[in-house]
Design goal:
The chain is an all-alpha fold. Helices cover about 75% and strands about 0% of the residues. The chain has helices spanning about 5-65, 65-80, 90-115, 120-140, 155-165. The longest helix is centred in the N-terminal third of the chain and has 63 residues, at about 5-65. The termini are far apart.
Length: about 170
């Protein structure tokens, strides 16, 4: 073997060793990157879950604090003569108010069905409101409002789930 051939062989071995070293370094960096991406995905899921919790709470609180809904509830209360009468004497006066509240709760129910809102939080915040709204305005416990159940499937499904559910929400985070 000549000197040139020996140098070429040594160069080939050095190239092979360098390539192997780069492969090991790349493999370890990819493993670290994979771990980092997994950690980031877990953190984003936690943030997403927390965001969904807050979004659900805000939607539930809107029932109490939204000025339009508050005025509707006030007119309904006054139309029933401050809650003394078992039924509304003239449903036509407050029908639109009842429909607005039913539609709002239907939107909440639809949000629960689509996974936008968390059922457990909605149930714990709005259980009584959903139950009474369906009883009063859909099942006509306080007057004939003419609300078609087929048009408010989100609220009806939510009502059924609330009726069947007994547990309380506990955050997993």
């Amino acid at each position: 073997m000549t000197l040139a051939e020996a140098l070429i062989a040594i160069g080939g071995i050095a190239t092979a060793l360098a390539t192997a070293a780069l492969a090991v370094i790349a493999w370890s960096q990819l493993s670290a990157l994979r771990k980092q991406l997994d950690d980031q995905a877990r953190q984003l899921k936690i943030v997403g879950d927390r965001e969904k919790q807050w979004r659900t709470i805000e939607a539930c609180e809107r029932y109490s604090y939204d000025p339009v809904l508050r005025e509707c509830k006030k007119r309904l209360w006054e139309a029933r003569r401050n809650g003394v009468l078992p039924r509304f004497p003239d449903v036509s006066v407050i029908r639109q108010d009842a429909i607005l509240i039913v539609n709002y709760l239907d939107a909440i129910g639809t949000g629960v069905a689509q996974g936008v809102y968390l059922f457990e939080i909605v149930r714990d915040h709005l259980r009584v409101i959903v139950m009474e709204t369906v009883e009063r305005f859909v099942q006509n416990g306080q007057g004939e409002f003419g609300i078609n159940k087929a048009n408010i499937t989100g609220l009806i499904t939510l009502h059924e789930k609330i009726t069947a559910s007994q547990t309380k929400y506990k955050a997993a985070i």
